[in-house]
Amino acid sequence: MILVQLAAEEAQNPLIPEVPELVIGLLAFAIVFFVLGKKLLPNINKVLEERRAAIEGGIEEAEAMKVEAQSVLEQYKAQLAEARHEAARLRQEAQEQGATLITEMRAEGQRQREEIIAAGHAQLEADRKAAAQALRQDVGTLATDLAGKLVGESLEDHARQSRVIDRFLDGLEEKAEATR
Fold first, then answer.
1. Could you list the residue ranges that cross the membrane?
2. Residue 11 has pLDDT above 80, yes or no
């Protein structure tokens, strides 16, 4: 009776389930837990493991990429330093070649200037000699004509005329040199 009374009291309490309901609920929970544990939980664990592996792989890959990027950066810096060194060397060579070229061009200009001056002096000397020769002939002709008029005889003989002119001009040159 006590059990009946307890059962009657229990029926009255809605918070305490009846034993058959409790057993059925526990069995259903165990079946659902077993099915979830055998079927769903391995899939969830598999997905979580794949995600963890992907994250770790991503981290490892990021670390490897960081190391590779650092290596590439060092190579870039080394190449940049080498390029700067090469540019400085080429600039120095260009300056040296430019200085050499300027020196050569100055020497060539000096040589050409000397040649032009020498040619000018030679031309002046040739012109002076030609002018002196022309003057000598003109003075000789005038002197012969004047001498012929003074002497009263013709100095038409060419050989005689040349001798007289030469003597006259030689005398003038001697006087000119004596006055200097």
1. 15-35
2. no
